[in-house]
Amino acid sequence: MTTLQSIQARTGQPLGEPLAASTPGQIDDAARAAAAAFAGWSASSGSSRAALLRALAAALEAEREGLVALADEETALGPVRLSGELDRTAFQLRRFADIAERGLPFATTDDPAVAGPPPAGHPAMVRLRVPLGPVAMFSASNFPFAFSVLGGDTASALAAGCPVVVKAHSGHLLLSNRVFGLVQQVLKAQQLPAGLVGLVQGGGNDVGVQLVRHPAMAAGAFTGSTRGGAALQAEANARPRPIPFYGELGSTNPVVALPAVLAARGAELASTLAGSIALGCGQFCTSPGVIVLLNDPASDALVQQLTTALATQKPHAMLTPGMRSAFDVGVTHMLAAGAQPLLHEAGSDQAPRPFLAQVDAVDFIARPGLREEVFGPSSLVVRAASVAQALEVLQAVGGSLTVTLWGADEDSADNRALVRGATAIAGRVLFAGVPTGVAVTAAQQHGGPWPSSTQPMSTSVGDAAIERFLRPVALQDAPAWLLARNGQPC
Amino acid sequence: MTTLQSIQARTGQPLGEPLAASTPGQIDDAARAAAAAFAGWSASSGSSRAALLRALAAALEAEREGLVALADEETALGPVRLSGELDRTAFQLRRFADIAERGLPFATTDDPAVAGPPPAGHPAMVRLRVPLGPVAMFSASNFPFAFSVLGGDTASALAAGCPVVVKAHSGHLLLSNRVFGLVQQVLKAQQLPAGLVGLVQGGGNDVGVQLVRHPAMAAGAFTGSTRGGAALQAEANARPRPIPFYGELGSTNPVVALPAVLAARGAELASTLAGSIALGCGQFCTSPGVIVLLNDPASDALVQQLTTALATQKPHAMLTPGMRSAFDVGVTHMLAAGAQPLLHEAGSDQAPRPFLAQVDAVDFIARPGLREEVFGPSSLVVRAASVAQALEVLQAVGGSLTVTLWGADEDSADNRALVRGATAIAGRVLFAGVPTGVAVTAAQQHGGPWPSSTQPMSTSVGDAAIERFLRPVALQDAPAWLLARNGQPC
B413 vs A322, A333, A490, B361, B418, CA distance in Å? Predict the structure, then answer.
């Protein structure tokens, strides 16, 4: 029997007893149970879905103290952040409850028959959407609540009418199992099948690969590294019947700071930026990893201010020992690729020190090694000679969850070009503030061109996340009894 | 220099002089010209897009006589069908003109700032959509107008703000070039860059592969065989930066005909079905290739009626000699897999005779060879012992553009199960009529689960086809000048 061991993030010591990895038979059972639950859940009403999602939110909140303490032991993210993350997770569950209750998954486009020959004439058509089926959901390391067992993927999939089989992240195994226990209690209380939400766990890739290959799975949802997501996407594509795979992957989140705003507010912005780089030990998908500055005295000043501000940051322990060592490897690669260090200090075995370096835009564009994400409190200043060259830097980044443009406050040819360059590579473009922190709103878009996500037309945060799990179907000349269902699947 | 030769479909003889295949340099030029045209076209107004699309529709109509005659020589589809297809193509162009003019590509979701801490509080967010970039568009053999140079993919991409590079289909090269000439005249008259619509051509796969691999391409759109589409999708996925690839592939389009409706209207339905199977020599993506019948005397009668009705059909020449020989190979495979022939006659070198065979559901489910699409006037009757077994037949089909349910007129457990089974595998479910003929409407969905399409959440026909080429972007704290653009890209 393969066993898994939870680790205390702050000490690197084992936490609790070893857990058994899911066997191939257990993975198959979970997938089959999800498929069995699909028939009923896909035909469930919006109010049933809302009732489940609200009860799950309440269950999280009722157990807040114990869950946050356990999450903190496993991740070192700190009780304040984790309690806030639990709030966000409950908020998401309730938001998708509202969306289901308002009937969005059942919305139809009516297209009454038009008499006469085609192309103008046509039969009666109604467009509705059907839930895809069981979703293989891969938890993230860095959000043990909001992108985990009861995170946004699970909330939006359940709201869409899809069962979920969660692959627990090995960075917070005990928490995942405890939350899963709460889910099972809620399902039982609501007399819903236990298989509506499943959990599997394993140390290597084999459990996730088996899950995404399982014939019962109809979609994948993933938050994590580009390498891991790309491997699972390849599995999804290589199935006898490929399935959509929604991967939210790595991102360097360039911040372009123009001289005028730096001249006016450089010190404040340097401090804000340093906080964002080191926030949560830099373990955010939206951590600003590239700072693009034009050649200007205000930019020189920002580099100094940022170096100083970042030096005062005290990042906590990283999520896992593997991430801690990967951070050092990433920094080494960055230096080997020619980055000039501005701040480079040895950290502890668990907690790194922030890393800041600088390169010329020409080098950044020429050397792929400088463009790789270093997951953790790290950022690279890229010095560009002109707005045109800054645009080439964005183009070299290629795809990112976010781009931040500081100082594009006036309508000008340069600013239009920067907005065009930013929207061309990112799913979210900010004009103030920092990219860390992703609001759960109707207008949110968390997902951009490759390599930041595998399906840049979709979002994993915000109301539109539910769209990932609903497939359009047109009914032609549908009988009255079916139309009377108002978009509710049979 | 590689040359290409247009072939008269009815005779197999060469038509006109050989044409030069696009060289790698020419493909690169077309892709670069499209990329150069993107900056201006992505920022164009809805009325500019509408003006171009309407002028293209008018240009087609003005040249109707010559275009239809040429298309008929190259495809043998007949002047009536081809003139109707030209109408549909012009209709689509005007429909997307209206969509662009109404401002759909520029629609925004406004999410004003909410004061207070997250998760409820959030900054001002606006969700808009940006055009993806140049689209590599692969023409279909079987719709020389509607899924070709000025077909729905081109119309929807241009309406979205995306340039297009068309890969002409070798089955109607002269027509493609003549239509492309019209496009160039219209672009010139409107003072738009010639590269906004490009054309490349080649005999083998290399031209298409080079096009989809080109760094300037931002999406692919394809209508054709599962094999060809899967190969190009793999190329799109294997790029250093993968791009969305919208492939509308093969489909067997099951028709489930229940005993009661057959008892009442069997003869009429048999005649309708025979016409649909043989329509356009069976060369429709939506040709009904699988007829699912329950064991019942009315089903036995339908088999006889259908055999008789199909025997009276006189399919015209197929589109290309390659398709003609592939039809015979497909029939041979079907027989080798155990299909019992009901109608199997030798055709001419150009035109096949309709093929009809029958199998038991158990065999259909067990043998993948029986489930392969035979492109042409062919259909396979599958006899099921029960509704439950009919559902297993649908599940074995797996993914289809359409499923037709005849006789599901009342609300019953069986009919609900059939609707559930049909919507689970298809993008369009019909309750009357035949699947051939795809209305261009707001509610249309032309695309279903694999293998019928590579992106089952998207449609290649109907208003939603434009969604394929628009990527969401959230603007956070956008400045006033940018908000004043009302969703118009910079």
Answer: 53, 62, 9, 21, 9
Query: Which residues of chain A register pLDDT less than 50?
Result: none
Contact, A90 vs A60, CB < 8 A? yes
* Pairwise CA distance, residues B315 & B304, whole Å: 20
Distance from CA of B83 to the nearest CA of A (A): 12
Read off the tokens for A313: 């940051």
CB < 8 Å to A451, chain B: 241
CA terminus-to-terminus distance, chain A: 42
Does residue B440 belong to any structural domain of this protein?
A: no
Query: Do residues A24 and A39 make contact, with C-beta atoms less than 8 angstroms apart?
Result: no
Give the residue among B457, B463, B452 at the shortest CA–CA distance from B285.
Answer: B452
Paired tokens of B444: 């249309």
Cite the active site residues of A. 248, 285
Query: What ipTM is given for this predicted complex?
Result: 0.97
pLDDT at B400: 98
User: Could you say which of A408, A419, A476 has the minimum Cβ distance to residue B430?
Assistant: A476
Q: Is residue B447 part of a domain?
A: no
CA–CA gap between residue A460 and residue A146 (Å, rounded): 11
Q: Per residue in A273-301, pLDDT tens?
A: 999 999 999 999 999 999 999 999 999 99
d(CA B426, CA B401): 5
Residue in A with minimal Cα distance to B443: A127
Q: How far is B346 from chain A (nearest CA, A)?
A: 34
Give chain B's residues under pLDDT 50: none
List the single residue in A42, A427, A441 with the smallest CB-CB distance to B472: A427
Measured CA to CA, the distance from residue B389 to residue B409 in angstroms comes to: 20
Distance from CA of A336 to the nearest CA of B (A): 23
Same domain membership, residue A269 and residue A138: no
Which CATH number goes with the domain that contains B426? 3.40.309.10
CB within 8 Å: B439 and A126: no
| Beta-carbon separation of B127 and A408 below 8 A | no
Contact B223, B446 (CB under 8 A): no
pLDDT per residue as tens digits for the range B397-430? 999 999 999 999 999 999 999 999 999 999 999 9
Q: Alpha-carbon distance A286 to A289, whole Å?
A: 8
pLDDT at A484 (0 to 100): 96
**Cβ contact B439–A118 (<8 Å):** yes
Residues A240 and A286 in one domain: no
Rounded to an integer, what distance in angstroms lies between the CA atom of residue B192 and that of residue B276? 42
Range of A401's domain? 255-430
Q: Output the pLDDT for position B472.
A: 98
| DSSP line for A114-127 | B-SSTTT-B--EEE
Name the pTM for this structure.
0.97
Residue A203's pLDDT is 85
Q: Is A443 contained in some domain?
A: no
Is residue B470 located within the same domain as residue B386? no
Which two structure tokens, joined as six digits, stand for A447? 């997902």
One domain for residues A419 and A462: no
Report whether the peptide linkage leading into residue B119 is cis, meaning its omega lies within 30 degrees of zero.
yes
User: To the nearest whole angstrom, how far is the Cα of B308 from the nearest Cα of chain A?
Assistant: 28
In this complex, do B118 and A88 lie within 8 Å of one another by their Cβ atoms? yes
Q: Looking at the structure, tell me whether residues A268 and A283 fall in a common domain.
A: yes
B428 and A242 within 8 Å at the Cβ level: the answer is no
| Domain co-membership, B366 together with B277 | yes
Both B223 and B327 in one domain: the answer is no
CB contact under 8 A, A127 and B443: yes
Residues A192 and A260 in one domain: no
Facing residue for A242 by CB, picked from B111, B133, B450 = B450
- The rounded distance, in Å, linking the Cα atoms of B355 and B347 is 10
The closest CB to that of A419, out of B451, B470, B482, belongs to: B482
Count of domains observed in chain B: 2
Q: Tell me if A321 is assigned to some domain.
A: yes
Residue numbers in B near A99 (CB within 8 A) = none
